[in-house]
Design brief:
The protein is 49% helix and 5% strand. The relative contact order is 0.20.
């Protein structure tokens, strides 16, 4: 959700920037975009599709999440010359680090988890266990390695959408915003055009 908001805001801002500057909105060649789809596909089955997430074995969640993060890190590294990708890659590295060091799942503190559960829900929170069908594991701050990289932030109440996210997610979103914003900016002359 945070990334989607950043992409939409970045695209709208970049288009407006290009229009106000009387220049075309640029495009860039993003290399190996298939890595993003390859990273997302296993997560789709493990966390999002109701027909598969309920039967997806908990023991396979860590390898799926760590593997997905590896593919996304490769994608960011390959495209590191593009605007915003160094921030995006830094965010992915933060998420990869905290996920890997905490058993292959994203740590979520009990006090934040309580705020995400709808009133009357049958979800049972148990320390050290996966929360529902998501990617998070319930861990108190003192049991979490690099707790500050976990899902410690919540969307404001006025969003009316329960969501926890990490500092890595923020950096990924800022990187995505920066990419779309920059595409509406002045075009740098190519190396060939310079004397």
């Amino acid at each position: 959700m945070v990334l989607l908001i950043a992409v939409l805001l970045g695209l709208a801002s970049g288009l407006l920037r290009a229009r106000l500057g009387h220049r075309p909105y640029r495009s860039v060649e993003v290399r190996h975009i298939w890595l993003v789809f390859a990273a997302y596909l296993p997560q789709l089955f493990a966390f999002y599709l109701p027909s598969t997430r309920a039967t997806f074995p908990d023991r396979l969640v860590p390898p799926v999440l760590v593997g997905s993060q590896c593919l996304l890190l490769m994608f960011a590294w390959i495209n590191r010359q593009l605007p915003g990708f160094w921030l995006l890659g830094l965010g992915l590295a933060g998420n990869f680090t905290v996920i890997t060091l905490n058993g292959g799942m994203m740590p979520l503190m009990p006090e934040n988890a309580q705020k995400l559960i709808p009133v009357g829900s049958q979800v049972v929170l148990e320390v050290g266990k996966r929360i529902g069908y998501g990617k998070d594991i319930l861990l108190p701050k003192e049991q979490t390695i690099f707790w500050f990289l976990g899902d410690i932030f919540l969307l404001p109440d006025w969003f009316n959408y329960p969501l926890a996210f990490s500092s890595g997610d923020i950096l990924i979103s800022v990187g995505a915003f920066w990419l779309f914003w920059q595409l509406g900016g002045p075009h740098k002359p190519s190396q060939e055009a310079q004397p």
